Amino acid sequence: MPVNRTELGVGCFHFEVPTAGLDTEKWAREVRRVLEAVPSVRAVEIEEPIPGLMGEEEDEEIYFSPHPQSGHVSFGLTIPRRMQEEVWAGSLPAGVSEDFAVSIFYGDYFPVTFITFLGQSDGVDASGGVVIVREFLRRELRRLGAEVGEVGFVVLGPSPFHANFTFLPSSPEELEGDPGIPGISYAKKPQLGYPDVLIRYDSTRYSSGEDAISAFVPHVIHQLSYFYQLIRLRNRRMFHAVAIRNRVTELVHIHQASGLKGWWWRMFQAGRLTRELILTAVGLSFRHREEIRRSRESFEHIFEAAKLPMFRTWLESEMTDAYRDELNNCREVAELLEPRRLREVNALLVLVVAAVSAVLGAFASHLLG
Questions:
Q1: Are the C-beta atoms of 332 and 361 separated by less than 8 Å?
Q2: How confident is the model over 11-31, as a mean pLDDT?
């Protein structure tokens, strides 16, 4: 790998302290304590969030516990090649970087993590570095055991983000187009696997790749933070669709069941399940449409002010209602099965009425006879 390249990886990491609630001071104190207990970590810096400014905890499992909506956590990390190979599950070349700079930024939406290779790294791209750091931190917190206390290390995928960012020093004449940031331009290079985003910086303006990254990051934090918010919402829509699909499967099994038990469930359970399923599917369809509408409004607001709209296409791809058809199909299956159940109910009522009529007729004949 050329000497002058600087690799940057992106992900979504968070150190959570579930009982911190709105106590940002406790959150910062606990995170610092755990990070400083990891021997490979150095130079921990925490910009404490604005007091009380923590994201609300949601009821779905895909959400982090309340997380800061301001501030950042940064630290250096040394991972010897031997340990990298253990978490990478494969051999690495001798020139692999052993030093990383990790920064987690908290904003209006979700945390964004930037991982910079310090020094040169042969054989591992930026996304590979994110994997190594992610798995190493997981392992180290497990190794600390009880010392970790309630602090957890959580990740929202894709982590790594599906692109490799490479910073290249260039002369002012080599910079292309109107990048929006003085002295920086970029170009996306499609390839097998994750695309490369080549970011050229004016070497007369920025002294190093790390210096250029410091200028680059503030312009993309908001976009990436919202990208992970969209991933969070997409995952929630997916869980909704899976839950509805499971209920439809349960309903189909009830209708396919034979014998007295199957008949009993169709008579007295399937109707309630069908009504709940249809109402839930309709409600989720409306909720998802409204969610996507609001997402598009926020998207437009973000990119109206963006000087470097690098991540526009990535965000656009996450604002589709990919599960709308599945919800509609589940509702249609429930509606299709209900008439069969109603026919069985009507047949039962006819039998009951006939039986009651026969009993009443016999009783009347007995009284008159």
A1: no
A2: 83
Q: Supply the angle between the helices 270-304 and 209-256 in degrees, to the nearest 10.
A: 160
HSE (CB half, 13 Å, CA atoms) of 329? 10
More confident residue, 354 or 65: 65
Backbone angles phi, psi at 166, to 5 degrees: -120, 125
From the list 85, 96, 91, the residue with the least C-alpha distance to 119 is 96
Cα angle, residue 84 at apex, residues 80 and 88 outer, rounded to 5°: 175
DSSP state of 120: -
Q: Which pLDDT value is given to residue 35?
A: 92
d(CA 324, CA 284): 9
Q: Evaluate the omega torsion of the peptide bond into residue 190 and state whether it is cis, within 30 degrees of 0.
A: no
Q: How far apart are CA 37 and CA 18, in angstroms?
A: 19
Q: What does DSSP say about strands 112-118 and 152-155: parallel, antiparallel, or unpaired?
A: unpaired
Query: Residue for token digits 């200028």?
Result: 215
For residue 308, CA distances in Å to 94, 206, 282 come to 36, 18, 39
Q: Which two tokens stand for residue 180?
A: 């929006």
Which structure tokens are listed for 8?
Answer: 């940057």
Token reading at 18: 């579930």
Kindly give, in sequence order, each residue whose CB lies less than 8 Å from that of residue 119, ignoring residues fewer than 6 positions away: 97, 98, 99
How buried is residue 212: exposed, middle or buried, by Cβ count under 10 Å (0-12/13-18/19+)?
buried
β-bridge pairing 99-105 and 72-78: antiparallel
- Cα angle 169, 171, 173 (rounded to 5 degrees) comes to 135
Q: At what angle do helices 270-304 and 259-268 cross, to 10 degrees?
A: 60
Residue whose pair of structure tokens reads 């310090």 in the numeric block? 118
Residue 175 contacts residue 185 (beta carbons within 8 Å)? yes
**Residue 345 amino acid letter:** V
Domain boundaries, the chain: 6-161, 230-368
Among 109, 115, 113, 116, which residue's Cα sits nearest to residue 154? Answer: 113
pLDDT tens-digit map of 80-111: 888 888 887 766 655 567 889 999 998 778 88
Given a contact cutoff of 8 angstroms between Cβ atoms, the answer to whether 13 and 34 are in contact is no
- Rounded mean pLDDT of the chain? 77
